[in-house]
Design goal:
The chain is of the alpha/beta class and 285 residues long. The radius of gyration is 19 Å and the shape is globular. It has helices at residues 6-28, 43-59, 74-86, 105-111, 123-131, 139-151, 170-179, 194-198, 244-247, 261-280; strands at residues 2-3, 33-39, 62-68, 92-95, 159-163, 183-187, 203-206, 224-227, 231-232, 238-239, 253-254. The structure holds ligand BQF. The site of ligand BQF has 11 residues, from helix 2 and helix 10.
């Protein structure tokens, strides 16, 4: 069994983005800029936004933190998005989710210019992913694909099982595996016999949000196991959707939590911001 080192793969991707961005910034005289909107005082969200700002500094991007109070109205938030859309010095925009309950996430996402939508949550980008003609991929599924590639395991023809069907992870994850010619099954809370499904998986992606729910007896020997979960266990320790200690004995490759998918999500955001920048300055690919 091999533990996939997400930090290492993420560092490699960020290094590539940094080198390419430095080269282009120098020649074009424009530096990539990511605007991150944070509303309210959810501590986890504040940490995620800090991480994103840190990543921008690391790869040589400008970052703009737009921090708004809990009391922000929908109108104020929409006005900010409009300003960032119109600001030519801003190449990527993201709104940290979840938003406080009184705000309409969908309306905010739909207002972001699809060309600046580095999370790839806008319906136009979601649709482009469905037909395989995309500029941006949602960061977490894109990061998972990179981790699978890093193992050398080929997706084509494999039984791929995704547990979870969120719009942010599960659904696009299934689509990306399908694009690489996997035979994809998407499982969810109404799946009749989850264990029967996961036992057939050569590649298993867990994105449910239930601590350690994937046990060793649910995993095919030699499977590649990718854990997207971010939960707290009974001792308040960060853990995934996979029971790592059990499942690591059965998997060929497995991602840890922390240090697996999380760092990749961050690296892919930098990659998407660079893509948005290249589009804005008129460079393809
Ligand atoms: C690690 C996120 C749920 C809801 C909204 C590294 C991150 C996490 C873990 C991180 C996440 C999760 C992010 C690790 C961004 C991933 O070492 O394991 C990085 O910063 N993430 C987010 O922005 O919004 C979320 C999870």
């Amino acid at each position: 069994m091999e533990i996939i080192n997400g930090k290492e793969v993420a560092a490699r991707i960020k290094g590539q983005v940094k080198a390419d961005a430095e080269y282009l910034s120098y020649h074009v005289g424009i530096t990539p800029c990511l605007a991150v909107i944070l509303v309210g005082d959810d501590p986890a969200s504040a940490v995620y936004v800090k991480n994103k700002t840190k990543d921008c500094a690391e790869v040589g991007f400008i970052s703009r933190e737009c921090i708004l109070p809990e009391s922000t109205t929908q109108e104020e938030l929409m006005k900010l998005v409009k300003e960032l859309n119109e600001d030519e010095t801003v190449h990527g925009i993201l709104c940290q989710l979840p938003l406080p309950k009184h705000l309409d996430e969908r309306e905010v996402i739909n207002a972001i210019d699809p060309d600046k939508d580095v999370d790839a949550f806008h319906p136009v980008n979601v649709g482009r992913i469905m037909i395989g003609e995309y500029d941006f991929l949602p960061c977490t599924p894109a990061g998972v694909m990179e981790l699978i590639h890093s193992t050398g395991v080929c997706v084509e023809g494999k039984n791929c099982v995704v547990v979870g069907r969120s719009n942010i992870v599960g659904k696009p994850m299934s689509m990306l595996l399908l694009h690489e010619n996997g035979t994809v099954t998407t499982c969810h809370s109404k799946t009749k016999d989850l264990k029967a499904e996961t036992l057939r998986a050569d590649i298993l992606v867990a994105a449910v949000g239930k601590a350690k729910m994937i046990k060793a007896d649910m995993v095919k020997p030699g499977a590649v196991v990718i854990d997207v979960g971010m939960n707290r266990d009974e001792n308040g320790k960060l853990c995934g959707d996979v029971d790592f200690e059990e499942v690591k004995e059965k998997a060929s490759y497995i991602t840890p939590v922390p240090g697996g998918v999380g760092p990749m999500t961050r690296a892919m955001l930098m990659k998407n911001t660079f893509t948005a920048y290249k589009k804005a300055i008129g460079i393809k690919g």
